[in-house]
UniProtKB/TrEMBL annotation:
Annotated compartments: Cytoplasm
Domain 3-dehydroquinate synthase N-terminal: 71-181
Record's protein name: 3-dehydroquinate synthase
Residues that hold Zn(2+) according to the record: 186, 249, 266
Record's GO cellular component terms: cytoplasm
Enzyme class, spelled out: lyase
Primary localisation category: cytoplasm
GO molecular function: 3-dehydroquinate synthase activity; metal ion binding; nucleotide binding
EC number: 4.2.3.4
All copies of domain 3-dehydroquinate synthase C-terminal, residue ranges: 183-327
Record's cofactor remark: Binds 1 divalent metal cation per subunit. Can use either Co(2+) or Zn(2+).
Length: 364
């Protein structure tokens, strides 16, 4: 097991990564000051529950904890106020009090939903992230929690840090292939924004990583979490630096929304976004070397797309990019590469450059 810390003063917390950690949950919870006199309320979805729900519940009961559980349907539609209300009902019936702890057992959807439950239930109770998807190496760290509104994603939310992240990497073995591929896009993103050693690992150990071989997969997750943890420690509430985590997302979010959520996964959309944003960086001269070619090669090696689907119009994508929260005074702000494994934040991105690149991104 590897451990690193998100440094946030009194609210600092550990991230434990390794195979078989769910079995060691009672011990790891005890280290986070969660003793058996604290009621535990597991939130999970049907897929994850089928595979891991009963085991986790049993390990904890055997260790003397009082454990409740609520299972929601899989998919982002469960990240809603409606489902949140059900969870509150279940938590009240179970007897979750201020001493209680919410356990988010699942991918990013569960992390966000259970995290928001814990941020709002009785004005805030503690929660622990138990990620089970590769994408969740990103979403489980940093304390952004939210549910969706029919008009916009993640608009009802909070900053609420977990008291620990316990990442059992063996759970990834049952993840559907497309979800795994999508998760690799965020791992690649972490390399591209800050860590050449992660990029090397991704390039050199592709087969081992895709095959989820230890210790490579654990190491890649560790490096990804470390970057997220460092950025969050320096800018918890996204006043500036934290925006670098959004590399590939300005174009990616627009593509994801316009393709109709689900047709392209989040990871596939940001893969296309990272190629587009690298091309914009080259056009505007923020980066002098060719990073478009190696970016594409790396993404393709992991089965991710690098071109825009022909059914999306450039002008629609650009219009949608203006919804991005990073924008200032009606001008596009984007995260662009400054080198291989380096990015920065740039204001006033001209529309014609974006349109040109989007056109080229479709043709290739
Ligand atoms: N808070 C943040 O900082 C942040 C960052 C990125 C994304 N997110 C959010 O994360 C969500 C997406 O997360 P996700 O990609 O993990 O999706 P997800 O949680 O919906 O999981 C994807 C699918 O995999 C299934 N699954 C999960 N773990 C499994 C396992 N081990 N074995 C088999 N099946 C498993 C789930 O049931 C689901 O069907 C979105 O809601 C997004 O907004 C949040
Ligand atoms: Zn993302």
């Amino acid at each position: 097991m590897e451990t690193l810390y998100v440094e946030l003063g009194e609210r600092s917390y550990p991230i434990h990564i390794g195979p078989g950690l769910l079995r060691r949950l009672p011990l790891l919870l005890a280290e986070c000051d969660i003793a058996p006199d604290h009621p535990l309320f597991i939130v999970t979805d049907e897929h994850v529950n089928q595979r891991y729900g009963s085991d986790v519940q049993q390990f904890l009961k055997d260790a003397g904890y009082k454990v409740g559980k609520s299972v929601v349907p899989p998919g982002d539609t469960s990240k809603s106020l409606h489902v949140l209300e059900h969870l509150v009902t279940d938590a009240l019936h179970f007897g979750l009090d201020r001493n209680g702890v919410v356990l988010a057992l699942g991918g990013g959807m569960i992390g966000d939903l259970a995290g928001f439950l814990s941020a709002s239930y009785m004005r805030g109770v503690r929660f622990v992230q138990l990620p089970t998807t590769l994408l969740a190496h990103d979403s489980s760290v940093g304390g952004k929690v939210a549910v969706n509104h029919p008009l916009a994603k993640n608009v009802i939310g909070a900053f609420h840090q977990p008291v620990g992240v316990i990442y059992d990497t063996t759970t990834l073995a049952t993840l559907p292939k497309r979800e795994l591929t999508s998760g690799f896009a965020e791992v690649i993103k972490h390399g591209l924004i800050r860590d050449v050693t992660l990029l090397e690992l991704l390039e050199e150990k592709r087969d081992q990583l895709v095959g989820l071989e230890s210790p490579y997969i654990d190491r890649a997750i560790l490096k990804g979490c470390r970057i997220k943890a460092e950025v969050v420690s320096r800018d918890e509430k996204e006043h500036g630096l934290r925006a670098v985590l959004n590399y590939g997302h300005t174009i990616g979010h627009a593509v994801e929304a316009l393709a109709d959520f689900g047709r392209l996964t989040h990871g596939e959309s940001i893969a296309i976004g990272m190629v587009g944003e690298a091309m914009i960086g080259e056009r505007l001269g923020t980066v002098k070397e060719d990073i478009v070619t190696p970016t594409k090669e790396l993404l393709r090696a992991y089965g991710l797309p690098t071109t825009l689907p022909p059914y999306l119009a450039e002008t629609d994508i650009l219009a949608r990019m203006y919804h991005d929260k990073k924008n200032r005074s009606g001008k596009l702000v984007m995260v662009l590469p400054t080198g291989w494994g380096q990015v920065d934040i740039f204001p006033n991105i001209p529309d014609d450059t974006v349109l040109d690149v989007l056109r080229q991104l479709k043709d290739e």
